[in-house]
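Same chain as my last thread, 443 residues:
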Amino acid sequence: MSQIPSQKNKDTDFMSELDAAAHMRPAMPAILMMLTIMAMFTFVIIWASKSEIEELTRAQGQVVPSQDIQIVQSLEGGVLEDILVTEGEQVTQGQILLRVSDVQFASKERGTEAKFMALQAQKARLRAEINSAPFSAASNITDKYPQIVANERALYNSRMKELRGAHQILDDRAAKAQAEMNEADAQINRLSDSATSLQEELRITQDLVKTRAVPKLEALRLERELNDTRGQINAQQERKRALQAEKRGALNEKKNITDRYRSEALSELSDVETQLSALQEELTSIGDRVQRTEIKSPADGIINRIAVKTIGGVVEPAKPLAEIVPLSDALKIVAKVTPEDIAFLRLGMKAKVKITAYDAQKYGSVDATLSRIGANSISDGQGNVYFEIEVKASKNYLGTEENKLPIMPGMVAAVDIITGKRTILYYLLKPLMRARESIFTER
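reply #2:
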C-alpha cells in the first residue's frame, strides 16, 4: 500500500529552499547538543565567578641573619692554644671554638683550691672534735689531697689523746676521792656501832655506880672512851665532806676542760668558715677566668670569620677572635619590591618563600609573614628604584622533619606576597572592563 504524502510535505514542495528550511522541524540530536552547550557555558560562568586565585606581588631577596653578627672575644687574653673550628662551619651554642691558655691563673687556681681543701679538712676535724665524733673528711679531699687529710687526722688524734689524758687524770682524782669516801663511810659505820655499844655500857655502869657495885672511875673511863669515839666519827664525817668537795672539783675541772676545748674548737671553726667563704668567692672568680680560656659560641650559627689563626700567638684582652652569623628558628628575608607594587602591601600579609638553591617543584616553599615595609624608596645607582621589605619565615628549613634542608643566610629567595584573591571571571572580564573605560574617549 503506497504512503500518502502529508499536506505539509506537499506544501513545501512548492516553496523555495529558504522558506522550506524555515518550516522544517529541527532534529532531536541537534536540540540536545544545543542544550548541552548552553549548560556547559552556564557551568563555566558559575565556576569562573566562584573560583578564586591568589593575587601575588613578587619580589627577589636574600636570607639574612635574624640577629646581629656575634663577635667572639677573650676578656683576659692569653696565648692561643688551639683552634677547634673552621670558617663556614656550623656550630651550636656553648660549643668550644678556641682555647686560650692563661698559665698564671691556672696555677693560682690550683694553689687556691689546695688551700680551700685544707680548710675544708680542718673544718671536718674541728666538727669532729666539737661533737666528740670520729674524724672523717670528704672523699674528694681524701682522693685529691691525701697528705692534707693525713695531717689533720694526726692532729685530731693528738688533740683527742691530750684531752683523754687530762680527763683520765681528773677521773683518777675523782675515783681516789670516792674510794677514800667509801673508807670514811666504813669508819663512820664502825665507830657508830662502837659508840652505841659504849653508850649502853656506860648506862649500865652508871646504874651500878649508884649501887656502889662498880667504882665511879669505871664510868668516867667509859664516858671518856665514848667521847673519843664520837670525836673520831666527826673527824671521819669532816674527811668525807672534804673528799666530796675534792671529787666535785675534779669533775668540774673535767667539764671545764671539755668546755674550754670545745670553745676553742668553735672559735677556730668560725675563723675557718670565714676564710672558706672568702676563698670560695676567690675560687669562683678565678674559676670563671680559667673557664673563659675556653672560648665558646654564644649562639647557634655559622663561623663567618676567624680573626686569629696562629697557634701560640698572643691574644690581647677583648680582641675579636671570631665572627658568628646566628641561626635561629625564625629566618628573615630582605627583598626588593617595585614602586608599582608597594601600594598593595600591608604588614602581616602572608607570603611564600622559595629558595633558589632548592628545586621549588620538589621541596616546595616556606610560609612567611610580611614584617616590615620600607618607608622610602631606594635607588641602586643604576636607575632602578625599589622599596625594601622584610618577611619572617615560619621555619628555617625545607623538606620534612626527618630530612631537613637548612636555609642559610646569604641564600637567594623568591618571595610571593599574597595581596588578595580574585575570581577567574574577573580576570576574563578585565580586558573588557579596561576597554569599556577607554571606549569613546579617544580624540
